[in-house]
Amino acid sequence: MGCRSILPEFRECGREQSVPMDELDDLDHRILSALHALGADPRVARVARALSRTGEHAALWLAAGALGAALDGARRGAWLRATALTAGAHAAGTVVKHVVRRPRPSRLAPRVRTVGRHSFPSSHATSATAAAVAYGGLGVYAAAPLAAAMCLSRLVTGVHHPSDVVAGAALGAATARWGARWTREGRRG
Fold this sequence. Notes:
The protein is mainly alpha-helical. The protein has helices at about 20-40, 40-55, 60-70, 75-100, 125-135, 145-155, 160-180, 180-185, and strands spanning about 5, 10. It is built from eight helices and two strands, in the order ββαααααααα.
């Protein structure tokens, strides 16, 4: 059995099977189209736009962390460290975005304006998931469903491919898990 090219730098040979990138792109577009269609309901679009605005530059999550630090004096240090992890995850996502430079979806009309032209990974998903993990470790379990809603809002507004959101969420979760012990105890590990 011969080899066939999937991408110029990758080849599929022998019994190994791989999903061609065209099929992944098609799946990304089909999922995005289905979720973007939900925004035809003005109530859904309004909520998605609000989540997108409050998630810009991780503003909602950083404000929540600062509020937690102000109100929970006994765990102020843990709150500040969780907030720092959230900010760090957001910064990491922004760096990756500038390296990868994947363009935003172009087949659908976006429902919000974006700060930048690049979409991989979703910085909203990165910071939202980092905050959900970090603040969840401090007992704020409502952060997880709010983070999930923020991740979905990026698809409903049509400004990210689903794979951007998944990658951003993975980066945010990994960053927060990496710093979990530091958040709780002030030590990395």
